[in-house]
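seq:
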Amino acid sequence: MIPRGSQTDAREMMDFCAFAGNDQLLTCEQAATMLQIPEDTLRAWRTVRGNGGHKKPPFIRIGRRIRYRLGDLRRYISEMA
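struct:
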């Protein structure tokens, strides 16, 4: 089961991500926890036009909801390392 809610910490999220498939969709909160950045930073990256020299993690929109594919976040992390 995906760790959810304000009690989600980085350790729980990393444990989950170690076994989840690349197509698993994560919420903004979960993606921010995985990336260890504030959720507001993800929101800002989505809304700012242009990249300002910074590569943004790809996201998908399902209706009004924003989701991040786990595989995309894994690739983003490896490219930023």
